[in-house]
């Protein structure tokens, strides 16, 4: 998981449609570092992450005057990282797919 991951697709239901994957044209980036630090250009700040049991990840960002804490289920293979919010606020499911980049 160490490295740079760019958001390429989101999964969800939009306007009453059945849930499906949709391409993202200008997705944000996560950079996971080996010391458990994390950078995201979505928030433009540094943070940290912790891999938990049962393929879960906890991310914490300390951005100027706001704190961002997120929990996700992880699916990871050599090419893609899929993060699914846990707990989810999406009635029909939602997820984000990232592609590993150099």
Strand order of the largest sheet: 1-3-4-5-6-7-8-9
Described by strand count, sense and barrel closure, the largest sheet is: 8 strands, antiparallel, barrel
User: What is the arithmetic mean of pLDDT?
Assistant: 91
Percentage of residues assigned to helices:
under 10%
CATH class category: Mainly Beta
Shape: globular
Strand content: over 45%
Structural class: mainly beta
Low-pLDDT parts are none
| CATH 2nd-level architecture | Beta Barrel
Rg, please? Answer: 14 Å
Explain what the structure shows:
This protein is mainly β and 102 residues long. It has a single domain, classed as Lipocalin, CATH 2.40.128. 0% of the residues lie in helices and 61% in strands. It is built from no helices and 9 strands. Strands 1-3-4-5-6-7-8-9 form an 8-stranded antiparallel β-barrel. β5 and β6 form a beta hairpin. 14% of the residues are buried. The model has no long low-confidence stretch (mean pLDDT 91).
């Amino acid at each position: 998981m160490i490295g740079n991951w760019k958001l390429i697709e989101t999964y969800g239901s939009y306007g009453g449609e059945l849930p499906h994957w949709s391409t993202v044209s200008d997705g944000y980036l996560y950079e996971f570092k080996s010391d458990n630090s994390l950078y995201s250009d979505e928030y433009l700040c540094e943070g940290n992450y912790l891999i938990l049991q049962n393929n879960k990840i906890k991310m914490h960002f300390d951005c100027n005057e706001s704190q961002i804490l997120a929990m996700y289920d992880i699916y990871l293979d050599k090419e893609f990282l899929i993060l699914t919010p846990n707990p989810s606020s999406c009635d029909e499911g939602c997820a984000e797919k990232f592609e590993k980049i150099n």
